[in-house]
Design goal:
By secondary structure, this protein is mostly helical. It folds into 2 domains: 161 residues; 84 residues, no CATH class. Helix content is 55%, strand content 0%. It is built from 5 helices and no strands. Helix 1 runs parallel beside helix 5, helix 2 runs antiparallel to helix 4 and helix 4 runs antiparallel to helix 5.
C-alpha cells in the first residue's frame, strides 16, 4: 500500500508542473497535442484546395484555346494563367503540404508518447517494489519530457526550413522593353502571350505555344516565323517561350 502511495505522491507533485497539466495550460503536453490536432486539418484543406484549383485551371487551357471567339480568349486565357500562377505561388510560399506533414508527424509522435506515459503509470502503480516503482515512473516522466522537447524542436525547425521569403522570379517571367510575360514564359517587343508561351512581334500566343509574325498558336504547338515555342522547349531567334525553357537574344525567361 505504501508503494502505491509513494507513486501517487510523485504524480501529484509532477502534475503541479505546467508541462504535465491539462490542455488549457499553455506549453503543457496536452496543450501541444490539442494545438496540432486543431491546426493540421486547415493545412490539409488548403493544400487540397490549391491542388484542385491548379488541376482544374490547367485542364481548362485546351478548352479555352479552342474557343473561336477572340474576345473570350483575351480574358479567359490570362485569367486561367493568373489562377495557376497565383495558387502555385501561394503554395510555394506557405508550403501547405510540408506544414501539414510536419503537424501530423508531431501530433502522432506526441500522442504515442502520451499513451506510453499512461502505460508506465499503470506499470508503476502495480509494481510491488517501492524503489522499482518510483524508478519506473521517474524514468517514464523524464523520457516523456525529453520526447516532447525533441518532437517540438524538430517540427519547429522543419517549419522554418521550408518557409522562405519568395524571390522575384518564382512565379513570373522577366520582361524586356515593353513586353508582358505570361504565367511562366517570357516575351519581347509588345506582344501578348497566353498561359505559358512566349511571343514576338504582335501576335497572341496559345495555351503553351509561342507565335511570331501575325500567326496564332494552338494549345501546345508553336507557329513558324521568327521564333517557335513548344510545350516545354525553348525558342530560337530573338525570343524563347515555354514553361521551362531558357531565353536568348533580347528576352529573359524567369520562373
Amino acid at each position: 500500500m505504501s508503494d502505491t502511495t509513494a507513486v501517487d505522491q510523485y504524480l501529484v507533485e509532477l502534475e503541479k508542473q505546467d508541462r504535465f497539466k491539462g490542455e488549457t495550460v499553455e506549453k503543457s503536453i496536452l496543450w501541444y497535442i490539442a494545438w496540432y490536432r486543431k491546426r493540421a486539418p486547415a493545412r490539409r484543406l488548403a493544400f487540397r484546395a490549391a491542388g484542385l484549383a491548379v488541376l482544374v485551371a490547367s485542364a481548362s487551357l485546351p478548352f479555352a484555346t479552342s474557343i473561336s471567339s477572340d474576345a473570350v480568349k483575351q480574358w479567359l486565357l490570362p485569367l486561367l494563367a493568373y489562377v495557376i500562377a497565383i495558387v502555385a505561388s501561394l503554395n510555394a510560399f506557405f508550403q501547405w503540404q510540408q506544414v501539414w506533414e510536419g503537424y501530423m508527424m508531431a501530433l502522432l509522435q506526441l500522442e504515442s508518447a502520451w499513451a506510453e506515459w499512461g502505460m508506465s503509470r499503470c506499470e508503476a502503480k502495480l509494481e510491488p517494489d517501492r524503489d522499482k516503482a518510483l524508478s519506473i515512473i521517474k524514468s517514464a516522466a523524464h523520457k516523456l519530457n525529453s520526447k516532447v522537447d525533441e518532437v517540438i524542436a524538430a517540427e519547429t525547425g522543419g517549419f522554418f526550413k521550408v518557409i522562405k521569403f519568395p524571390s522575384a522570379g518564382v512565379t513570373s517571367s522577366g520582361t524586356t522593353g515593353s513586353s508582358q510575360g505570361g504565367a511562366t514564359g517570357g516575351a519581347t517587343g509588345a506582344p501578348k502571350v497566353g498561359a505559358t508561351g512566349g511571343a514576338t512581334g504582335s501576335p497572341q500566343g496559345g495555351a503553351t505555344g509561342g507565335a511570331s509574325g501575325s500567326s496564332k498558336s494552338g494549345s501546345t504547338g508553336g507557329a513558324s516565323g521568327l521564333s517557335q515555342g513548344g510545350a516545354t522547349g525553348g525558342a530560337t531567334g530573338p525570343s524563347q517561350g515555354g514553361p521551362t525553357g531558357g531565353a536568348t537574344g533580347s528576352s529573359t525567361d524567369g520562373r
